[in-house]
Specification:
By secondary structure, the chain is of the alpha/beta class. It contains 16 helices and 23 strands.
């Protein structure tokens, strides 16, 4: 069990960090932090072996990006930042400690950037990224110009981080390694509490206790927002209210403080009526489908209401919400086949996403290309993940993405594919990344919807699928350079 401890930054500010170096700067979380520091005018460098799309933007902002990991990268550096994905024996981390440099976990560096701001922290087993993005856009629409760091990029904005001039700082709070416990929010939003990250917590009771501890860190003058429709969120609200804490809930439940009613979801979007304390807030609309997206937006509307922001600002921001990359992201259409990308890997979020994609597919079939994320999750939640995948008409399954996890014989996707309740001819385990596009092109028909879903590397597959479908339509061979799941160059055609 992961028992890592992190230290709150206290009065330390981002400016106190001096010259900052981030190990593994290409990941979404680290790239967002680097962007935040750069837009704040701070000197930033980073090291990354892969050429992730985010790196070009960091260079454009003045960041120095090293394509190797070596001791010389730390010359002139004052603070070294690492994430939980970086092993403790990483050569740059070891060298930083040998030199006596300040070494901070990503969450500790982020906490320093929050000093002096009113933090709105969004936690939960799933839905965090979309909810954080919605809260951010509502604040922006209200003219509050918040700072923010999100675990994804807001579509069309092309950024998951920004240094704003306003008093609010919106952040996605990660529970996976307990690092969310170093934050001191003014507003805590908890979208749901379900079994996950049991490699860190051991069991659901310990995980729920951590979420309660996170909520108790909320400023006494602030408030906690939870989902009344989620069993874990409801239990948390009851616990906190018994302690005399300010807790507000949202959902379709009759006793929710912000009550949603008349929820209607279609391929064109989702809408519902919202009411708080007997006051009608009118109809809330989003331009993307899904009841789960409606729930995420309700959290943002309730937070805006409690922060005394104009309800019209929330309505306008959500009505124009462009979505978040890797969250129900439309990649394109080729040969009559619509391709999406979706980050969901927990069975609940997978189920919600696939049910929504079924609405989009209409009379067409739903083909899922899934890469499981982490061996422990795939093993512990195999029955639930398999049931979610059973919503698909066709399944193309890749091997589990679990860097650094020891693999036992028979573990992973070999076991998962057998558990999926689909006929044998409608599901297939494809071991080689390069073979996936051709397999999908063979199965997909005009009018079908294909979604790449799961671990971060699968986001690179969508463009390759579109190329394979185009090649099928033209009868030509189209080669497109890409990146395989291990970071190696790959082609598909």
């Amino acid at each position: 069990m992961n028992t890592a401890q992190f230290t709150p930054a206290g009065t330390m500010t981002a400016e106190d960090l001096g010259r900052i170096h981030l190990i593994g700067v290409g990941g979404v979380g680290m790239a967002g932090l680097a962007r935040l520091f750069l837009t704040r005018g701070l000197p930033v460098s980073g090291s990354e072996l892969r050429e992730w799309p985010s790196l070009a933007g960091l260079r454009a902002l003045g960041g120095t990006i090293h394509s190797t990991h070596e001791a010389a990268n730390l010359d002139g550096v004052d603070t070294v930042v690492y994430s939980s994905a970086i092993p403790q024996d990483h050569l740059e981390l070891v060298e930083a400690r040998r030199r006596g440099l300040r070494v901070l976990h990503r969450s500790e560096a982020l906490a320093a950037a929050m000093t002096g701001r009113r933090t709105v922290a969004v936690a939960g087993t799933h839905g965090k990224t979309s909810t954080t993005s919605m809260v951010t856009m509502v604040l922006q629409q209200a003219g509050a110009d918040p700072s923010f760091v999100i675990g994804g990029e807001i579509s069309e904005v092309g950024s998951g981080a920004h240094h704003g001039t306003g008093e609010h700082f919106v952040v996605e709070a990660d529970e996976s390694d307990r690092s969310f416990l170093i934050y001191r929010p003014y507003v805590s939003i908890i979208t749901n509490v379900e079994a996950d990250h049991l490699n860190t917590y051991g069991d659901l009771a310990t995980l729920e206790a951590a979420f309660a501890e996170f909520a108790r860190l909320t400023d006494p003058d602030g408030f906690v927002v939870t989902c009344a429709d989620d069993a874990g969120g409801r239990r948390l609200a009851e616990t906190l209210r018994a302690e005399g804490r300010r807790v507000w809930t949202y959902g379709e439940s009759a006793d929710a403080d912000l009550r949603m009613s008349d929820v209607v979801s279609s391929a064109q979007g989702v809408r519902y009526l919202a009411e708080v304390e007997g006051r009608s807030l009118g109809e809330i609309r989003l331009p993307m489908p899904g009841r789960h997206m409606a729930l995420n937006s309700a959290a943002a509307v309730l937070a805006a209401y409690l922060l005394e922001l104009p309800v019209a600002a929330a309505e306008a921001a959500l009505g124009a919400f462009p979505g978040v990359r890797r969250r129900f992201e439309r990649k394109g259409v080729a040969d009559g086949v619509l391709v999406y990308d979706e980050y969901a890997y927990h069975p609940t979020s997978m189920t919600l996403a696939l049910q929504t994609l079924r609405e989009v597919a209409g009379d067409g079939r739903l083909i899922v290309v899934f890469q499981p994320y982490r061996l422990y999750r795939t093993r512990d939640l195999q029955a639930e993940i398999a049931a979610a995948l059973g919503i698909a008409d066709e399944l193309v399954l890749l091997e589990v993405f679990g860097p650094g996890e020891p693999r036992q014989p028979g573990e992973g996707s070999v076991a998962l594919i057998e558990a999926v309740p689909l006929p044998a001819d409608r599901k297939v385990f494809v071991e080689a990344w390069d073979d996936v596009p051709a397999e999908v092109a063979r199965r997909a028909r005009t009018g079908d919807v294909v979604v790449t879903m799961g671990a971060p590397p699968i986001s690179l597959m969508g463009d390759q699928l579109l190329d394979a479908l185009l090649a099928r339509a033209s009868g030509a061979t189209v080669l497109r350079a890409g990146v395989g799941p291990d970071g190696a160059a790959a082609t598909a055609g």
